[in-house]
Each structure stands twice: as C-alpha cells, then as structure tokens.
Write a structure and sequence with these properties.
The complex is a heterotrimer.
Chain A (H helix, E strand, L loop, with lengths): L5 H7 L2 H12 L5 H29 L16 E10 L6 E9 L1 H24 L6 H20 L3 H19 L6 H32 L4 H5 L2 H9 L16 H16 L8 H4 L5 H10 L1 H11 L1 H4 L12 H22 L4 H21 L3 H38 L4 H11 L38 H4 L1 H15 L6 H17 L3 H28 L7 H4 L8 H23 L12 H7 L5 H7 L13 H23 L10 H6 L1 H8 L4 H74 L7 H24 L4 H27 L1
Antiparallel strand pairs in A: 1-2
Helix pairs in contact in A: 1-3, 2-3, 2-5, 3-4, 3-5, 4-5, 4-12, 4-17, 4-24, 5-6, 6-7, 7-10, 10-13, 10-15, 12-17, 13-16, 13-17, 15-16, 15-22, 16-17, 16-22, 17-18, 17-20, 17-21, 17-24, 17-26, 20-22, 20-24, 21-22, 21-27, 22-27
Chain B lengths: L3 H21 L3 H24 L16 H31 L13
Helix pairs in contact in B: 1-2, 2-3
Chain C lengths: L3 H25 L3 H21 L3 H25 L14 H21 L17 H10 L5 H22 L4
Helix pairs in contact in C: 1-2, 2-3
Classes of the chains: A mainly alpha, B mainly alpha, C mainly alpha.
Chain lengths: 810, 111, 173
C-alpha cells in the first residue's frame, strides 16, 4: 500500500485525534506534558496528511472531481468498505463506510486541520493552569477527530457519526467548567437545541436511504438519474397521495437536512444555544463557533446542494423548497442576529451573534444558488472568526490580569484573595497559595456583580497595552466588516452579493436576500467598529483596562504569550490573503493583476467541479461591488460617528441606546426575548409534564396507586387466609380435641367407683341384648318398632344425661 | 316327673334374687351372699340339665358327656369356695383399713 | 298307693319354697346374721333339689362345702365386722333399680323358657339314670381324657385362693 496515495492516506486523517482522545483519557490523564505532546502531535500529523492531499490536489490534479480527468473514471480520490450488509443476493442493500476527496473536501481539509492545530496551540497557553487541562485536550482531540471524520466522509451516515461526535464534544466542552451552573445549563441547552435539528436530519437521512438504498455522496449527488428520480417522486407517496404537502422526495429530504443545519449552525429559530455556549473556554468558542462545528452545518448543505436543488431551475430563478427555506431562514437570521449584536456588551456575545449572522449569509447564499460563494465565505469566515475569538480570549485574559494588577495596588492580601475568589482566575497561579481549583475561569454575569472582564464597557484603550492583539483583532474585524480589497471577507461577501444581484432579475427571493444581506452587512460593519472602538480605542474606562496585559514580563508570561500570539498571527495572515483566490478576473485593476499571475478564478473553478454541472462563470458586474463598498462605508461611518468621534467614557450610556430609543435597545439587548418565549412555550410545559404529570399523576398516582392497590389486595387476601386459618382450620384442629375432652369429661362420670353400679350397667347391657334377641328370634315382625323404640330411648337418655350433667356442673 | 322347666324357673328365680341382693344391699357381706345365691342357681341349672339329658347321648366328636353336668357343678363349688374365701378376706381387710363394710364407701378407684 | 308324680311334685314344691323363700329372706332380712341363717335354709333346699335330680353326691358336697364351710365363713366375717351391723339401712339408694332389673331378668328368662317349653331341648329325654353315677363322676375327674386337667387347675385355684386370702386378711406387720 502506497501510503502517500491519497486514496489510502485519507483514511488516516481522522484517526490520530481520535486515538489521542482515548490515549489521553485512559493513559495520559495525569501528565500534562504527555497529553499535550499526544494531542498536538496527533493534530499536527493530521494536518500534515491533509496538507499533502491538498497540495496533491491543487498542484497535480486541478481537475479533481472531473469524471474522466487525471484521476480516471471516478474523478475523485477515495474508497469504501462494505460495513453493514442488509439483505442478500439481488436485494443486497449494503451500507458502506468510506472516504471521499473531492474539491469541496480539499478546501475543508485545508481549513479545518489548520484551524484546529492553531487553536490547540492557543489552548496550550490559555488553559495552562487549569487543573483539568489534560481532559480538555482529550475532548479537543475528540472534537477534531469528529470534524475530520465528517469532512472526509463519503456517505451521510459517516458524516452523521462525525456530526454527533461533535455534538457530544460541544456539550462536554461548553460545560467544561461544570461547577458553574450557567456553564452546564448552557451545555445542555446546546445539546438539546442541536438535537432537535439532528432528529429531523436523521429522518431525512432515513428517508433518503429508504428511497434510494444508498447514502453515498457520489451515488446520490453525482448521479443525475437518482436526483431526477428523487425530484419527481412525491414525498411519502405511500402515505400521502400526491406527496407530503405536495413536496417531492428530494424536497422533503432537503428540508430535513436543512433543519439539521439550522440546528447545528444556529440559525433562527434554533440559534439560542450559540450565545450561551460562550460559557465555555475561549478556545472552545473559537473552535466550535468559528472553525469547525458551525461550519459543519454549512458544509453539509453545501455538500448536499445537488439534492437540495434537485428539481429547481436556478437559471430561470425557480428554486426548490429547500433552497427557499435556506434563503429565507439564512437572510432573516443574518439580519436578525446582526441587530441583536448591536446591543450586546459582552465581547464574546457580540462575536457569537456575529457568527450566527455570517452563517446566515452563507446559507442564504446557498439558498439562491450561489454554491461557490457560500463555500468561499465559509472558508474565509473560519479564519477571521477564529482570529476574532482568539483575540477576544487574549483581551479577556489581559483584562483579568489587569484586574489583579489594579487590586494589587490596594490594601492587601484580603482584597486580592477576594478578587481571586470572585474571578477564580487560574492563569495567575503565580500568586501562589490561592489555589482556586479552576472555579470558573471565564466569569460571567453571575460570578461578580462588581467586575466582568468580558464587558466591553469596562474596557477601552487596550491598544496601548496589548498591541499585537489589537492589530490582529483589527485585521479580523476588518475582514468581518468587509474592508475593501485587502481583507478576505470583502471578497467573499462581494461574491455573495454578486450572485444575489445576478439572480435578483430572475427571482424576487434573490431580491429579498440581497436587501436583507446588504442591511445585515451594514450592521456588521457598525457593530464591528463599535466593538473595536469600545475595546481598543479611546481611553481605559476602568483600572483593570489600564493595567490589562497578558504579558506580565516574566519568562513564563512570555512563553505563554508566544502560544497565545502565534496562532493569531497565522490566522491574521490568512484573513488577509485568503480572499485573493476568489477574485473575479473582470474586477478592475485587481482582477487583471491576479489574472496576470496566472490565477483565473482558481477557487471557483476548483470548487465548482464538485458539482455535476459546474456553476457558470459570472461576468464582472459593478453593482454588487458598489453595494459592498456602500454597506461597508455606511456602517463604518456610523460606527465612527457614534463611537470614535466621541469615545465613550466610563459611566456614559451606550450611544446606540440614544439612537434606537431605550425600548428598542432593551429588546435588542434581550435578544428579542426569544429565550424567554421558548422557556414559556416549550420548557415550562415540558417541565410540567415531567414534574407534575409524569411524576405526580402517572408515576405516583397511577402506577403507585395500582401497585398499592395490588398490595392492599394481597394484604387483604392474606388476612382472609389468616382468618380462615384461625377460624376454620384452627377451629377444627382445636375444636376436635376440645370436643373430645368435653365428651371425656362428661363420660368419666361413669366410673364412679361403686361396684354395684358397674354390675348394674352390665346387667342393663345384658338385658338389652336379651330383649333384642327375643324380639329378633321370637317376634321378627316388630323388629322395626323395636329398633325405633330403642333409638328413642337412647336419645331420651342422652338428653336426660346432658341435663343432669349440666345441672351438676352449674 | 317334675318337668325340667320347673327346675329352670326355680333357678331363674333364685338367680334374680341373688342379683337383687347384689344390686341393692349395702353391706359387702350381704352382696357376697347374693353372689352365693346366684351360684347356687347356676348349679341347679347345671344339674337339672344333666338329669334331663340322660341317657347319655354321645356327641358327634366322640366326647362322652356322661357326667359333664355334675363335674361342672363340682367345679362351680370349688370356684365358689375360693371366691368366698378371697372375697371375705377382702372384706375383712377393708374393714380394718376403712372401718366400714359398706360397698358404697369404697369408691376410691374412680375418675 | 299315692302317685309317684304327686309325691315328687309335693317334694318339689316344698323344696322350691325353701329355696326361694330362703333366698328371699336372705335379701329381705335387715339383720345380716339372720340373712346368713336364711342362706343356710336356702342352701339346704338346693341340696334337696339335687337329691331330686339324682345327684346325691352333689347334695352331700353342697351340704358339706356350702353350708358347712362357706356359710360358716360368712358368719365368721359377719362376726368380725359386727360393729357396723344394723347401724345403717340394709338397702342402698338404688334398690328400686335393682328390683326392676332383677324382676325384668326373671321375667325375660321365664318368658323365654315358657315359649321354648316345646322345644326338644326342654322337652327332652327323661330317661333313667343308670349306672353308678358317683363312680362315673370320680372317674371323669381323674380321667386324663375327661376332666383331669380342670381338676388339677381347680386345685391350683384353691391353693392360690387360700394363699391370697391369707395374705389379704392378715394383720399388717
């Protein structure tokens, strides 16, 4: 086996991180160094392997995906093994497990392992003093393994396995500091909310398998016959005549799969878990909410695009129901969460809502058929969002440090201890003797009412003390906002606008998407400027901000600083540069420049080959660029007006509040009260069902009632038997002897001791026998009368005897 | 010749008298006298039957029953004598221990 | 010449009177000593009946043993327990029952006898007594084929009775 052959190498990519998880959990749990080596080493090896495949694909086999190209009739790398055979002979429907490397996989393999590796390195520094460090890396490795499994999968089932692994890991990692109630509640919320999407998706997968007998991507998505069949067949035709809600099978499956993405990628209405997931450590937020997990949702729909668009005529502007769903949900979510982000004061919450918004961009783009644009934005977003999250981690780190430094200047040990206890900052174990066992590294609203290091209102002027972080954050923010030309975000967003604009003439849905996304982009620029201005510019608003520093000058601090800054630099690089692979050759100036270097829309050409029919090349159109520039400019200008011209000082209310009005601001700050609504509509009834109905009524009342009744019946029967035993059996058993004793007591009077009486008795007997003999022999005729008379006499005598004996005993 | 039945009736009457004495008399010695009467009645019966079965008829099994009646009566004599001796010895012993010869007073062998 | 039957009948009646009358007086006489004497009379009558029944030996034995020994013994016993004589009622409380019983016994027996008077058993042979009955009696008592064994046993019985009587009646040492 040639190990450098991508056909085989791909199998190995998910394996090292999964192995690392098991090894760390089972063997290396105690040794921090060992688990670090294992975790980083495994991710690094996965990255190397992925890199080799990416390079092979980009350099030698640019026609990857093309059937009949340099890779032969299949056109892709990969292979599968027969995993579960169902049925025999001709009816054999086997589930195969395998790997697939086509262009979409390649670009994911480029981004994911790199992002994972950088976040791992960042975690070395960020989680250095956490007591459960090794477990963190184990979970992180499992997470990376799950994501890589999802990326290289060649069928929906294997993808789903990776999907679920990541769901589990997000639960474990969000609730990593499980001593905090908000943390574990957030973990459960994440798991439950994504579960809803997952269940619907599973139904879709099952229906797909039932309809076609296969879940393999190439067999279903690259097979026009299958797609046509699915597109024409009415959904659930055996149950619903004319299809379920008039949908085709492909549409129903597509909608189910899109629901899975809505859950995983936190779109409305299942977006509620993502902001709460900020309870987890910052590397987790970066990993989950930038690079990998939420990207997995978008990756899924990009992957399943042929199925989702089956039956649609994109050129004519006729979209299939799943695409309509995606476009509407995506665009709405983009705008919706962008508005919420405007009013958030927590630095990570702003980024969370920003993520939701950007994912909405991608999904809306896919909804109107902008396949390449969605994939492009996915990749660029991963880089700059990861950068922003890691940067925010540095900021929070520094703010906590600044808080300690600020208090160090005050009275003494006590306040320090109090502050430490309040913050529980574990990275400052250099203050030996406090030994807070990792009690909530990232304190949020419930820990201290006095100081929240994540609250942007406490920040300001951090550019002085944290220059590197400032610079990288600036780059990331610019990319997010879509700063023209030099940032990757601009190019990817521009491509989305271009596609939307292109489709707007053919479909009103595209117009809706265009308008919504443009508004969202404006707000994106606005809140990004707000965030950067409040955090880094202006002057420090608190003592903590004044002393915020994550490099305290010691050797240890510098070492930590390397691990914390190196990933930022790499990500910043990509945030700037990654956009240039998607430049349209018709773009003024830049386009010709890029073309002259030999790049002819490399990204679009490369990725477009994933589909059977590669998307058509769009000619350059100036309007979308104008829209991009306008939205950026408008948003940035507004941000400058509100936050930069007159920097916000301590104690001053947010200028946004003044613009929007107090009521609207409060609605935005409270996220449109969606969580409260869910709590009222779903959680309380569920809790009622569990606590009252099932527990009280069913379990205690009904089931216990039945059991108690049975018990009572058994006890009653037992008592019945006991009484029967006592009365009847004991009665007979005791009664017979008693009767005998009574009889004997009565009869013993016969032995009176008087011999004459004895003789008398004997004589009576003799006479009686004699009389009977005479009667029998001499007068046989009156035998009957004689017998009767004797019986009567006998009874009489008994009566007399009884009466006399009772008289005697009285 | 006086018929057999006459003797038998006499014997029956004597027997009844003896029985009455046994049943109704208080004194133990009187009871014993009644027993004697009964025995004599039996004797009369035996001898009367012997007399009225003469001449001897040989039984089927070859046994000579010639003097059976008288022999039997003789044995009755013997038994009567023995019984009277022992009985009176008992009465005397009773008299010595309990100072009474009333049969009713000797009732300790009771329930 | 008076009829032999008539003589026999008269003898029989007289002897029966002796027997029954004597017996009656034995029972009825309050005085125990008189009763013993009446017993003598009765036994004498029985002896006479034996004679009438051609068993002279038994009559002699009756007189000797019964009248001569047994009644004497009874009189001895009466004498020895004299203190109690005549101080209480002669009859006990149960005498009516005894009377009824005795009467019933007598009546029943007589009744049966009268009814059966025509049966061969009772109206049986009344042949003569031939031979030396005493000799025959004596032979039968020692003939091992006849009554030798009962004879021996009877002697044994007498011995036992004698010893028993002595043991019972002797003074406590």
């Amino acid at each position: 086996m040639n190990w450098s052959d991508p056909n085989y190498l791909t199998w190995l990519i998910p394996i090292p991180p999964l192995v690392a998880f098991f090894v760390i959990i089972l063997a290396a749990g105690r040794s921090k160094t060992l688990s670090h080596i294992i975790a980083i080493g495994c991710v690094f090896s996965s990255w190397l392997m992925s890199l080799s495949i990416v390079l092979a694909a980009v350099t030698q086999h640019k026609d990857l995906g093309l059937v009949g190209g340099s890779l032969g009739p299949k056109g892709v790398w990969g292979g599968s093994i027969n995993w579960l055979a169902n049925g025999t002979g001709s009816g054999l429907r086997a589930i195969n497990m395998g790997v697939l490397v086509d262009p979409l996989t390649v670009i994911m393999l480029f981004m994911v392992p790199l992002a994972c590796l950088l976040i791992f390195i960042y975690s070395l520094g960020y989680m250095a003093h956490d007591p459960r460090n090794t477990r963190f890396f184990a979970y992180l490795s499992l997470f990376a393994g799950g994501m890589l499994l999802l990326v290289v999968a060649d069928n929906l089932l294997m993808l789903f396995i990776g999907w679920e692994i990541m769901g589990l890991c997000s639960y474990l990692l969000i609730g990593f500091w499980y001593e905090k109630p908000s943390a574990y509640k957030a973990a459960m919320k994440a798991f439950m909310t994504t579960r809803i999407g997952d269940v619907i998706m599973m139904l879709g997968i099952a229906y797909l398998w039932a309809s076609t007998g296969t879940l393999n991507f190439r067999d279903v998505l690259h097979n026009q016959a299958t797609l046509d069949m699915l597109a024409k067949a009415p959904a659930l035709s055996s149950v619903f005549n004319g299809g379920f809600l008039g949908l085709s099978a492909a549409a129903l499956i597509g909608i189910c799969i899109v629901c899975g993405t809505i859950g995983k990628s936190a779109q409305f209405p299942l977006h509620v878990w993502l902001p709460d997931a900020m309870e987890g450590p910052t590397p987790v937020s970066a990993m989950i909410h930038a690079a990998t997990m939420v990207s997995a949702g978008v990756y899924l729909v990009i992957r399943m695009f042929p199925l989702l668009s089956a039956g649609a005529n994109i050129e004519a502007g006729l979209y299939s129901p799943p695409m309509v769903l995606m476009a509407v949900v995506g665009a709405f979510t983009a705008l919706f969460s962008a508005t919420i982000a405007l009013a958030q004061n927590d630095i990570k919450k702003v980024l969370a809502y920003s993520t939701i918004s950007q994912l909405g961009f991608m999904i809306a783009a896919l909804g109107i058929g902008a396949y390449v644009a969605a994939a492009f934005h996915l990749i660029t977003h991963a880089f700059f969002k990861a950068l922003l999250f890691l940067g925010s981690g540095s900021v929070i780190h520094g703010m906590e440090h600044g808080e300690h430094a600020a208090h160090a200047g005050h009275a003494g040990h006590d306040s320090h201890v109090a502050a430490d206890a309040a913050h529980g900052h574990d990275a400052h174990d250099s203050h030996a003797g406090h030994g807070e066992p990792g009690a909530g590294h990232a304190p949020t609203e419930d820990v201290t009412p006095t100081f929240d290091p994540q609250d942007m209102r406490n920040m300001g002027g951090l550019r002085h003390t944290m220059p590197v972080t400032h610079l990288t954050f600036l780059i990331g923010g610019a990319a997010l906002a879509g700063f023209p030309i030099i940032t990757a975000g601009f190019w990817s967003k521009d491509e989305i606008f271009a596609d939307a604009f292109n489709m707007s003439s053919r479909s009103p849905l595209a117009i809706f998407v265009l308008v919504a996304l443009a508004l969202a982009a404006t707000l994106t620029a606005l809140y990004t400027v707000r965030q950067i201005a409040m955090t880094f510019w202006g002057e420090p608003r608190t003592e903590a901000a004044k002393h915020a520093l994550h490099n305290d000058g010691t050797a240890e601090g510098r070492a930590i600083s390397f691990e914390l800054t190196f990933p930022l630099i790499i990500l910043a690089f990509f945030a700037l540069v990654a956009g240039f692979v998607g430049v349209n050759p018709g773009f003024p100036v830049i386009g010709s420049l890029v073309k002259s270097l030999g790049f002819q829309e490399p990204f679009a050409n490369f990725v477009g080959r994933t589909l059977l029919n590669a998307p058509a090349h769009l000619d350059f159109n100036g309007w979308p660029v104008l829209i991009s520039l306008t939205v950026f400019g408008l948003g940035a200008y507004l941000g400058w007006l509100l936050y930069v011209r007159r920097p916000v000082v301590a104690g001053q209310p947010d200028p946004m509040e003044g613009i929007l009005g107090a009521d609207l601001y409060r609605i935005l700050q409270n996220k449109y009260y969606v969580d409260e609504f869910y709590g009222w509509a779903f959680i309380s009834p569920a809790r009622w069902i569990a606590e009252v109905f099932t527990y009280q009524v069913l379990d205690k009342g009904l089931i216990d009632g039945i059991l108690h009744m049975i018990a009572r019946a058994a006890i009653y029967t037992g008592n019945l038997f006991r009484e029967f035993n006592r009365v009847v059996i004991d009665g007979v058993g005791d009664g017979i002897p008693a009767a005998l004793i009574d009889a004997a007591r009565s009869l013993r009077g016969v032995q009176s001791g008087h011999i004459q009486q004895y003789l008398l008795y004997a004589l009576v007997g003799v006479l009686w026998v004699g009389l009977n003999l005479v009667v029998i022999v001499v007068f046989p005729a009156i035998i009957g009368w004689a017998a009767l008379a004797q019986i009567a006499i006998a009874l009489l005598l008994v009566l007399i005897f009884n009466m006399s004996s009772s008289k005697a005993s009285e | 010749m006086v018929p057999l039945i006459a003797y038998l009736i006499v014997a029956a009457g004597l027997f009844s008298l003896g029985m009455y004495a046994v049943l109704a008399r208080r004194n133990a010695i009187a009871i014993l006298m009644g027993v004697e009467l009964m025995l004599n009645a039996v004797n009369i019966n035996l001898v009367a039957f012997w007399r009225f079965s003469q001449p001897v008829t040989e039984a089927a099994n070859g046994l000579k029953v010639g003097m059976a009646g008288q022999a039997f009566a003789a044995f009755v004599f013997v038994v009567a004598a023995a019984e009277v001796a022992v009985g009176l010895a008992l009465v005397i012993s009773m008299y010595r221990n309990r100072r009474t010869v009333i049969a009713e007073d000797i009732d300790s062998l009771k329930f | 010449m008076p009829n032999v039957d008539v003589v026999q009948w008269i003898a029989f009646v007289v002897l029966s009177l002796l027997v029954l009358g004597g017996g009656l007086m034995v029972v009825a006489d309050q005085n125990l000593f008189h009763g013993a004497l009446w017993l003598l009379v009765c036994l004498f009558g029985v002896a006479g009946l034996f004679v009438m029944l051609s068993a002279p030996f038994l009559a002699a034995v009756q007189v000797l043993v019964y009248m001569g020994a047994i009644v004497i013994l009874i009189i001895f016993a009466i004498m020895l327990t004299q203190k109690m004589m005549g101080q209480r009622e002669a009859l006990n409380d149960r005498w009516p029952v005894g009377l009824v019983m005795a009467a019933m016994a007598f009546l029943l027996t007589s009744f049966v006898l009268v009814l059966a008077s025509n049966s061969p058993l009772l109206a049986g042979a009344t042949g003569n007594v031939t031979g030396d009955t005493i000799l025959k009696l004596g032979n039968s008592l020692v003939d091992t084929g006849q009554y030798a064994l009962p004879f021996e046993l009877a002697s044994l019985l007498l011995t036992a009775a004698m010893i028993g009587a002595i043991v019972i009646a002797r003074e406590e040492a």
